[in-house]
Amino acid sequence: MVENINLSENDIQVLRELGEWKAKASGTPENREKIKAWQEHDEGVKGSRVMVRAETWYTTDPEHTVNETDLKCRHPWARRLERDFRFRKHEIEILKDDSFVLPFAEYHSNIERSDFGLPSSLRRKAENDLAFNYTPVLTKLDDGDFKKIRHTTLKWNKEEEESEKATLEKVFKGILKVRRRSGIWIPTTSTCLNFVGLEGFMLLQYDNPSGLKRLMQFITDDHLALIDFMEQNKLFELNNESDYIGSGCMGCSRLLPAKDYKGIARAKDLWFYCESQESVSISPEAYGEFVFPYIKALSDRFGRVYYGCCEPVDPVWPYIKNMKNLKRLSVSPWADEEKVGRICRENKLVYSRKMSPNYFMGEKLKEEEVRRSAEKTVNSAAGASLEFILRDVYTLGNEPERFVRWVEIVREAGQGTKY
Does residue 77 lie within any of the structural domains? Predict the structure, then answer.
């Protein structure tokens, strides 16, 4: 929620200087080459190169790629914006991965969504803890349980959104244009676990399968109502440029929006990201019964779909292949790389490789293991558009330069590799 954005002269000056950097960087030959490369990569153009991205903001080490001491702004809103700018600047100037920028300052629709009438089952010991467990708020999924939950309500905070837009226009006047962009992630399985917990999700498939399906349909209907709300209020914007889609994926694509787009974005003009990491321990058949129908109902509303995160996608391929607009597959450390390579080649999908973050742990970066892993990926993905994405690295021995070396190694492995 954004309101009463009163910035000091120092905060404005810091942001303007970063805006000037972004405007200049967007016009460089290197930046233009990256944009063209991403577009060709997305389209599966013959001869397109391997793409590389490293997400560095997860790390909890005191020595970070962008530290709190690097931030010069004081207002919380300005600090968040400054942090985003500095991370992207680091990616482009230090990491030298395939991140790129456009000459815009961006904001998102300010949508307030209520809860479901019950607190989440998820529990952490402290706010910033990575570990958590569940204390289920629903256990039987009988009529009594369903009387406890309600559909969410939605409110567009138009005045606050316009206030943020006006502030951006004031800060970056003469430097960057201001625009609204769409960022949408609509979780299904994790929302279910917020009611019944992980163990409940597993056991209810046997104890009350009809109740579990009823809950999944309830959640899906609620998410579909969100999509309808965004469309009816003309709150969607395109996400096909330097936009973050999810799980490391950049939305750069010339194949969106839809051909009948006339300036007002609809779901079918957008990328959609979906996954179901929580269902990794159930059988593919159970996934097909209790998870996939609900993900498909949501994903089919969108123009292009990126599926998966840390879960292996190959066991459930017989189901996810039925997604209407599937375009990218996440290939996690637990996936059968060769099998997913065949899938991507045969179905003209992007092979989105997530290398294990374990190579970053310990006294030093395990360079030879990174190299062997990258070379295996290049061979497995041969004939498909390939991207390397590094994420979920939480500690690296206070040596952020390990990210730089990772980019160099995977680039070397992919050197000369063409789709």
Answer: yes
- Residue 184 tokens, joined: 């949408």
d(CA 134, CA 129): 14
Q: Is 13 exposed, middle or buried (0-12, 13-18, 19+ CB in 10 A)?
A: middle
Residue 4 forms part of a structural domain: no
Q: Rounded to an integer, what distance in angstroms lies between the CA atom of residue 86 and that of residue 8?
A: 19
124-176 pLDDT tens trace: 888 777 888 999 999 999 999 999 999 999 999 999 999 999 999 999 999 99
| Cα-based angle 18, 21, 23 (whole degrees, multiple of 5) | 110
Q: Cα–Cα distance between 415 and 333 in angstroms, integer?
A: 22
Query: For residue 110, is it left (φ>0), alpha (ψ between -120 and 50) or beta?
Result: beta
SS3 state of residue 404:
helix
Q: What is the residue range of 306's domain?
A: 9-414
Does the residue 229 lie in any domain? Answer: yes
Q: List the end-to-end C-alpha distance of the chain, in Å, as a whole number.
A: 44
pLDDT of 416 strictly over 80: no
Q: Which CATH number does the domain housing residue 173 bear?
A: 3.20.20.210
Q: How many domains does the chain have?
A: 1
DSSP assignment string, 290-307 = HTHHHHHHHHTTSSEEEE
pLDDT at 3: 55
Residue 419 lies in a domain: no
